[in-house]
Structures are given as C-alpha cells and as structure tokens.
Description:
Elements: E1 2-6, E2 10-16, E3 19-27, H1 31-44, E4 50-57, E5 63-67, H2 77-86, E6 92-99, H3 106-123, E7 127-131, E8 133-141, H4 145-154, E9 158-164, E10 167-175, H5 179-186, E11 193-196
Antiparallel strand pairs: 1-7, 2-3, 3-6, 4-5, 4-6, 8-10, 8-11, 9-10
Helix pairs in contact: 2-3
Amino acid sequence: xxxxxxxxxxxxxxxxxxxxxxAFAYPVKTEEEVKEKLDFLRKKYxxxxxxxxxxxxxxxxxxxxxxxxxxxxNSAGKPILGQLMxxxxxxxxxxxxRYFGGIxxxxxxxxxxxxxxxxxxxxxAETVTDVLTETWRLTFAYADLNPVLKVVKDMNLDCxxxxxxxxxxxxxxxxxxxxxxxxxxxxxxxxxxxVYE
Length: 197
C-alpha cells in the first residue's frame, strides 16, 4: 500500500498578539518515536506554556491522536490533526510549542493560530511517497540457500542480518502488497520457516 509522508523534520512559525507558536513536523513510524520527539521538545522548550500535538500512523492514518495540552478543548490538537489530514500525510507528528504573549486569543483565535503554525511546518516539509512493508525472518537449511537467494533477487527484496551457516537466516523487507506472491514462491523451499517481526 502506497501512502504520503514527509522526508525529514521541518519547522514553521506563527505569531499573534505577542504569542509565538513554533511548529515542528517529524516523520515517525511508532508511538515510541512520538514519545521521544515530545520528550525532546518538552526539555528543549521547557519554559513554553503549551506543547500541543497531533499524529497519524499507519498507511491509511488509522491510528491517530490529538492533544490540547491544557488549551481549551479542541482548540489546538484538532486543528493540527486537521492539517495532517488536509495534506494527506501519515506517519507524521506535528508539535506546536506556544509561548504566551499576555493577550488572550479566545478559542477561535487559538484554533486559527494552531492551524496556521501546523500548516506552515507542513508547507516546508518535502512530501514523499512511501510503501507499507513488513519484516520477515527467513530460516532455512544451507542446502536451500540458492533457491531462497533466487527468490530474494527476483523480487528485489531488501535483505539484511544474514547468517549463512548450517542453518541459514536472513531478514527481508517485503512490500505488503507482494507478501502473498512471496509466500507462494517460497512454498517450494521445504526447510523454510517464516517469522513475521
């Protein structure tokens, strides 16, 4: 399955009535990565009033979350999430760090500010196409090395962590849309065992 994401970290900024909204967009694949990025920004911008964020994960953006971090309900996280959806990207985290300028913006003003900051960060990001993959560990007898390597080569699989001893093993990255085809090709190798990681 093909989807859109961003190539690397990008930033944006929005200012309104003395308040400063610093936006950071990151490519992420797991909730652990989301937590690491949030922890990093909270330490770096420890003096900021709010660290609001939203993320989408999975090829279809099926796992998502929006967080207002103390701002009025749905005034920060939801507008950030809206920008992720408007840009049709997934596996992306956007965090907006707010420095309060002393003048209240109201809920409408906050929605606008968080939306604009997130949009600015995403506008500076390079959008790229990615493919949903799975990691498989293949274990097989040394006698079956050649047939396995032929399939790996024919299907142009990324191969790493190879060990070719009496019992061989290797990890391969498989495009999800090719997994059934690969299984059929590997059925001919009697000693083969597949573990999905």
